[in-house]
Amino acid sequence: MEVVEEKGKVCVTGAGGYVGSWLVKLLLSNGYKVHGTVRDLSDEKNAHLRKFEKASENLQLFKADVLHYDTLKAAFAGCEGVFHVASPVPATKVLDPELELITPAVNGTLNVLQACLEMKIKRVIVVSSIAAVLLNPHWPFDKLKDEKCWSSEEFCRKIENWYCLSKTMAEHAAWEYAEKNGLDLVTVCPSVVLGPLLQPTASASSLFLIYATKGGPEPMLDYLWHFVDVRDVADALLLVYEKPESSGRYICAASPITIRELVDLLKGMYPNYGYQKNIVDVPPSAPLTSEKLKKLGWKWRPLEETLTDAVECYREAGLLDELEGHTLHLPPLFKVT
Ligand SMILES: NC(=O)c1ccc[n+]([C@@H]2O[C@H](COP(=O)([O-])OP(=O)(O)OC[C@H]3O[C@@H](n4cnc5c(N)ncnc54)[C@H](OP(=O)(O)O)[C@@H]3O)[C@@H](O)[C@H]2O)c1
């Protein structure tokens, strides 16, 4: 029998979400005692968390909103580390960017960091995104985008990409706060996260793959997209938490592939879906590099494994069924200009 070493107590904000759920599962299986925050303890969408192995002994759920400071303090009590995962990832059009995205991302992150400082948390891992890296019009198109590359807030506003703006502002605010207050912070910037779901509903990034597989009315842009398996993101978050030498930002992006290549790959694996036909050419852009994370020891799955596990999971959940009278839409977040 495998003996798992008992570890300290850590908290995961947004425990019931796509990334949060896989992280909680991984932490439990690695011997951690986990505090997980959810906004509604009685909501069925969080019920899967209590079914994880070791959840009955080692998982405690807390009702917390990142905009309600005291709820965070209660969840962080007794913890050594905090993984701040919670941040809105909209699957539909954003009507009020300030209220729906920017305030929860920025003020939420600052509340989390302040509560970490007050509760004497030793290390904080903030989940940022390549949304805070990619939108930099000044970066040379033939130079790999590494951790020095930051999305331009001005550019995000100009093209009204509110999700990218919210993640860029939140990560900047996190670094400013941590440096000013001497907090041990590491940020991880995952690319588009795919792979099987643990929660009952499809996340926004899963809808991207479902849309490419089923096809829909909005064109998809033939960028060089970077995908990463949700299980590899959880591994990366634990890796940066556990490695004392980790510091700064880490891009967490595995497989670069264009949409046309992705659709062709999927067609070869599952020939019976409709697939997106309207794919539009775009100018070339510089790929991302995760060299810094790889040097720390990060490993990732081949894209084929991620796609197989994702499609099988969607199939079982009925997410690839054709529903009469229902048109699938591409989450606006992915209509990058
Ligand atoms: N999926 C991707 O492709 C991707 C890529 C890069 C980075 N990320 C980042 O990864 C993190 C998780 O994303 P995800 O894909 O797992 O999305 P998700 O499934 O939608 O999870 C988002 C989580 O944030 C929580 N949340 C939102 N607003 C909150 C608030 N005011 N207070 C407390 N919790 C709040 C949600 O709780 P409720 O369930 O209560 O709404 C949910 O648990 C985010 O920070 C996102 O920016 C995701």
TrEMBL record:
It comes from the Eukaryota. Residues 10-247 form the NAD-dependent epimerase/dehydratase domain. Keywords: Oxidoreductase. The keyword Thylakoid does not apply. GO terms for molecular function: oxidoreductase activity, acting on the CH-OH group of donors, NAD or NADP as acceptor. The keyword Iron does not apply. Gene3D superfamilies: NAD(P)-binding Rossmann-like Domain (3.40.50.720). This is Cinnamoyl-CoA reductase 1-like isoform X1. It comes from Phoenix dactylifera (Date palm).
